[in-house]
Amino acid sequence: MNRIINIAILLLTAIVAQAASFTVEAPRQVVEGNKFNVTFVLNNGEGSSFTPPEVSGARLIYGPSVSHSYSSSWVNGKSSSSSTEEYTMIYKATATGKCHIGAASIVVGGKRVATKPFNIEVLPSGSHASPQHQQQTTPGAPTPYSDPMTQSADKAVTGKDLFVRIQLSKPRVYEQQAVVCTIKLYTKYQISQFMPTIQPSFDGFLIEEIPVQPALNKVETLNGERYMTAILKQCILYPQQSGKLTISSGNYDVSVVQFDTFKSIFGSISKPVEKDLKVTSNKATVNILPLPEPKPASFTGAVGRFNVTTDLKPATGLKTYSAATYRYIISGTGNIKYIKAPEVKFPDQFDVYDPKTDAQVNDGAGDMSGKVVMDYTFIPQYAGEFDIPAGEFSYFDPEAGKYVTVNVPGRHLTVAKGEGQPSNHYRMKNMDIRPIKGGDLGLKKSHGYIVDHWTYWLWFLLPLLALAALLAYYRKQLKERADVRRMRSKRASKVAQRRLKAARGFATRGDRSGFYAEMLNALWGYMSDKLSIPVSELSKDNINAELEQYGIDEPLRKASMDLIDKCEFAQYAPELASGDMNAVLDEAAGIIDRLESVKRKKTIVES
Question: Can you list the domains of the chain with their CATH numbers?
Answer without folding.
Answer: 17-141 (2.60.40.10), 162-288 (2.60.40), 295-422 (2.60.40), 484-596 (1.20.120)
